[in-house]
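Question (not urgent): is this output format expected?
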Amino acid sequence: MSNPDYQVTNHAIEGDRLTIDVEVASPIVTKAYKKVHKKLLRFIKIPGFRSGKAPMDVVSSRVGPEKFDQEVETELLPKYYYKAVEGEERRPVSEVEYSAKEMEKGKPFKFTATVDVACQIELGDYNSLEIDEVEAVEVSEEDVQKQIEGLRRRMAQMTKPEENDTIGDSSLVHLRYEGNIDGKNYKSLTQVTSLLVGDDDFLPGFGDNIKGMKDGEEKTFTYKMPEDYEPENLAGKDVEFKVKIFTFQHAKLPEVNDDFAKEVGAFESLEQLTGKIRGDLDDQAKQKREQKYADKLRELLSEVVSCELPGERVEKAIERRIEDIKDRFQNQPVTFEEHLEETGKTEDGLREDLDKDVRREMKVDYALDKIALSEGLEVSDEEVEKRIAFTAQVFRRPAAEIKEILDATGSRILRKFDLLREKAFSMLLERYRVKAGLAKAEEKTEENEG
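Got this back:
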């Protein structure tokens, strides 16, 4: 594992931790010094020298030899770490730790890199998995009409009620509801909100219980939660709701005709609007079907992997997920502890669930690493740049700043391996889609083409 620019002088894997000693050739180091010298000349002015003409030793003295060498190290370290681990069969899966760095102008640059790598696995025949059929979901006329009804409600004209008016069909109500089960208050079922009576997106039939009420009135009633409600421990439960009405308005729903379609958007007729809604629902149903198919493939792929996952790595991954979940409950009405209690779980139980998820996902990742290698898949630098640019856009940070953060920890290579895994899974999924009749052999998705 060497080339004229650098060589790996030592390569050792102990357990699931890789240590390599890398030596970058002196001509490359000299070029890096010159590059840093040229870069620094753009930012500093030294008395007695024309702009951009100060010698390297003078610039080094001005910024400090240690700082100058750090800049050279930044030029060399991530680049040659990436080169050294690029072809590793057991791919890096963590940030890198550097040590034993030797930097001196005119001499080779030496460093030691230590990083966690994928565990050794045995991978079964990933092309012979048997995936159960995922039934297609047919979009019904009722589904289409429900969408149209939702559009009607969103476009409703609101009017203030008369003095003795009460809440009726299609009233928009501002209220507070508080849910209790067996005398215990559930914060997840307690909220101040606005509800359009008849809108089943909230809780089907809930609004029927507040019809006939007026501003300021309170009422307590029992409501049976839907059988498919999440979290499932509340599904089908009888909940005692205490409701207080603050204000309400009457909603006048528009008639469903061609004029309505034109008001909704760029539609010439109701038929055109209905066709668009049906097409969108068909696409959503197809996406859900294919997502279920992909989930089944991942599950089966994890089952053809044999390996002993490092317990410490699994535990760290679980801990990160626990912290992420806790962060989501910061500044929320329901605390993490209350969420666990109301969903009928304990933190130990949550950890057990996460343990299964983490182990399955690790196995799939390591399998995809091996598949990518065996299939000869590649990811270009341009593809990595696009992913970094997308990340920068999401976080609203300059791409150069994201790159600097990634390179400081040797993580740009991890993004590349993530892309390789995505490619490997897309390739495998496409094979099974063809086998299942979800796609034709000559078809390629836009994702695969990209």
